[in-house]
Amino acid sequence: MSRMQTAPHMTFFATTPLCLLLALTLCACREDPGAAAYPAADTAGADTGPALPQGPDPFQEGEKRLDLGLYYEGGSSERVEINDVDTHYYIYEATYSEKVELQDIVEGREAAKLEVNDKGWLGGGLTWDSPRDLSGWGVLAISLRSGDPGLTELALHMQAGAEAVLPLAGYGWTPDGQWHHLRVPMADFAAGGANLSAVTGPYVLIGAGGAPGDTLTIDDLYIEEG
Fold first, then answer.
1. What single-letter DSSP state applies at residue 22?
2. What is the tens place of the pLDDT at every residue in 48-76?
3. What would the 3-class secondary structure string for 190-205 be?
4. Which strands sit side by side in the sheet containing 87-92, from one edge to the other?
């Protein structure tokens, strides 16, 4: 079942909310699949098949790492579940559809592949109804891959009082068909006006452009002490 809402952190966009993780069809909401039925990346071994990829910076016990509940399957010291009650994942204006990617991955068993629709842009991200203090965190990590030049102009937005906007080209992003493992300092969001002690939109991805059928693969999203 689907319903239309307006994302609280971007009131000028109509939005399509998704249940917990990924929408398989446009403007549709998949039922909660329940708990994951596969081992965590740090427990996979010879008895459970090939070791799962753990990304360019595998989690180590004792580290401080925040799992945002989206595009990440590795270990963490803290996790914010997407429950569609007070934590949400939105696709703005149905600008893209999203499916599970099982072959082209960075960590865990799956990534997400976004396919641009016919709106001329893409946008989506996380919303927390109650602000959270992220002032003690240092870096937002995300891995992106695309071979479509229309997706050159991607930017991360953070909603935290004011809206900080960071074009990803400044952190090494280019749609050249290769994986790019980006690390964006939280201090840069603060310099852009975000109040890191009151974050309501920790991850919002906006792309200016993109032709119908262009794709973007995303994996390994988390925030760490840095």
1. -
2. 557 889 999 999 999 999 999 999 999 99
3. HHCCECCCCECEEEEE
4. 5-6, 14-18, 87-92, 121-128, 201-208, 154-160, 162-167
C-alpha 156 chain-centroid distance = 10
Statement: the pTM of the whole predicted model exceeds 0.70: yes
**What is the residue type of 162?**
A
Q: How many residues does the chain have?
A: 226
Each residue of 173-217: pLDDT tens digit? 999 999 999 999 999 999 999 999 999 999 999 999 999 999 999
Instruction: Report the b/e string of 37-49 with b at 16+ CB within 10 A.
Output: eeeebeebeeeee
Q: pLDDT (tens digit, 9 = 90+) per residue, 78-131? A: 999 999 999 999 999 999 999 999 999 999 999 999 999 999 999 999 999 999
Q: Which residue has the tokens 């993109």?
A: 210
Query: What are the structural domains, with CATH classification, of the chain?
Result: 5-26+63-224 (2.60.120.430)
Q: Within the chain, what is the greatest distance between any pair of CA atoms?
A: 51
Burial 1-21 (b: 16+ CB within 10 A, else e): eeeeeebebbeebebbbbbbb
